[in-house]
Design goal:
The complex is a heterodimer of chains A (268) and B (163). Chain A is of the alpha+beta class and 268 residues long. Chain A has two domains: 41 residues, no CATH class; 208 residues, 2-Layer Sandwich (Uridine Diphospho-n-acetylenolpyruvylglucosamine Reductase, domain 3), CATH 3.30.465. Chain A is built from eleven helices and twelve strands. Chain A has a five-stranded antiparallel beta sheet. In chain A, strand 2, helix 2 and strand 3 form a beta-alpha-beta unit. The model of chain A has no long low-confidence stretch (mean pLDDT 96). Chain B has a five-stranded mixed beta sheet with strand order 2-1-5-3-4, sandwiched between helices. In chain B, strand 1 and strand 2 form a beta hairpin. In chain B, helix 2 packs antiparallel against helix 5 and helix 3 packs across helix 5. Classes of the chains: A alpha+beta (268), B alpha+beta (163). At the A-B interface, helix 2, strand 3 and helix 6 of A face strand 4 and helix 3 of B.
Chain lengths: 268, 163
């Protein structure tokens, strides 16, 4: 790891100020992506701005028709929360499948979203649930937030504060894990909302998380695995690597989409 | 590049108050092993996969190779050395690993035991095989095939109830 200067602001405003003022500064949340890449010298920020001592960034609250989860809330807290389990059980299931128990004690929702790893789980939940990402400056809809591999709508001095998840009628997440990394080889999140059905796919796109419009249309007419009969997924635009070819990923999306709809129907 | 300046931190390690001046880059595991001489916590993969470095921070199992020592400032850390005083009887989970032949080379064992106690803290004393195996996702063992580790944890969890 290359040297850096460590900052520990007490408020979001101070943290945003540091980000704006310092050259080459990065936020440190749970550190479970940032520290490994710094150890590998793939990243070498001159400044780290630690978010762990800012009050009010972690926490879970059901607010009317949506669930608010603070940016510094850990995966373990989401997985074990009775409030999340009651409001959006699929979200608790998803959080409980990230990494391993020790990783879930450190990794955070905000960190995962800001990083926007193309194989991370949370981006699929945000996109399928039509979540709103609340930052230090504004509110960003999930549809506008994710902008490609490791790219988001966040400005250099903008910090995620919390995420608002509208509570769906039904939802589920099914993930085909890479056995070594525990990331999603392919993960599909489906949400049946009052006005629409959304299907979000992670792990597969060369441009990161994306929605499956054809599946959404078919499922809106009738929310059942059978509605997907005859629909195939083109391999174009899907990633190909040592773990799986684009064709294999395309096939998996179809299989997992059927399973996830079945799971969502069973969950209620 | 910024020149490293030492930062002072205070924490408790195995119940003892510790103060140290660290380069911000120092990982928690490096502080434990190299500054405090607590070499029971191991570094296996150094990439947060293997779990040989698991310690408890404020009562929760974490991988100490993927946490800055600075992040532990003001917190309570427990390592394998903190489970039982030297010369005193072993912690029931340690005893269970010995009784059930839960280790061979022993390299992964400190992490296994710290994870095992965390499982009991979260899931209680009656643990089935499925639960233990799922919860051991982040702890790798290259010798045992896990069979006896799973047995050890089930036995240790029960023993902790009566300890």
């Amino acid at each position: 790891m290359y040297p850096f200067k460590f900052h520990r602001p007490a408020t979001v405003r101070q943290a945003a100020g540091l980000l704006g003022r310092l050259e080459d500064a990065k936020l440190l949340a749970g550190g479970h992506t940032l520290l490994p890449v710094m150890k590998q010298r793939l990243a070498s920020p001159a400044h780290l701005v630690d978010l762990s001592r800012i009050e009010g960034l972690a926490g879970i609250e059901a607010k009317g028709r949506s669930l608010a989860v603070g940016a510094m809330t850990t995966h373990a807290e989401v997985a074990d929360s009775g409030v999340v389990r009651a409001a959006i059980p699929a979200l608790a299931d998803l959080a409980g499948q990230i990494g391993d128990p020790a990783v879930r004690h450190r990794g955070t929702l905000g960190g995962s979203l800001a990083n926007n790893d193309p194989t991370a789980d949370y981006p699929a939940a945000c996109l399928a649930l039509d979540a709103t990402i609340v930052t230090s400056k504004r509110r960003i809809k999930a549809d506008d937030f994710f902008q490609g591999l490791f790219q988001t709508a966040l400005e250099p001095d903008e910090i995620i504060v919390r995420v608002l998840f509208p509570i769906p009628k039904k939802a589920a997440y099914v993930k085909f894990r890479n056995q070594a990394s525990r990331y999603a080889l392919v993960g599909v999140f489906v949400a049946r909302r009052p006005s629409e059905v959304r299907v979000a796919v992670t792990g597969a796109g060369t441009d990161g998380v994306f929605r499956m419009a054809a599946f959404e249309q078919a499922l809106k007419a009738r929310f059942a695995p059978k509605s997907l009969d005859g629909l195939t997924v083109p391999a174009e635009g899907l990633s190909s690597d040592i773990h799986a070819s684009a064709d294999y990923r395309a096939h998996l999306i179809g299989v997992l989409a059927r399973r996830v709809v079945e799971a969502a129907n069973k969950a209620v | 590049m910024t020149r490293p300046s030492l930062t002072k931190i205070s924490l408790t390690v195995n119940g003892k108050a510790i103060s140290a001046s660290v380069d911000p880059r120092t990982l928690l595991v490096t502080l434990l092993r190299e500054e405090l001489g607590l070499t029971g916590t191991h570094v296996g993969c150094d990439t947060s996969q293997c779990g040989a470095c698991v310690v408890h921070v404020d009562g929760k199992a974490v991988k100490s190779c993927t946490m800055l020592a600075l992040t532990a400032d003001g917190r309570a850390v427990v390592t394998i050395e903190g489970l039982a005083a030297e010369g005193a009887p072993l912690h029931p989970m340690q005893e269970a690993f010995r009784d059930n032949h839960g280790l061979q080379c022993g390299f992964c064992t400190p992490g296994m035991i710290m994870t095992a106690i965390d499982i009991v803290n979260r899931k209680g004393h009656e643990l089935d095989d499925r639960t233990i195996r799922d919860e051991l996702e982040g702890n790798l063992c290259r010798c045992t095939g896990y069979q006896n580790i799973v047995k050890s944890i089930a036995a240790g969890a029960k023993a902790m109830a009566s300890a």
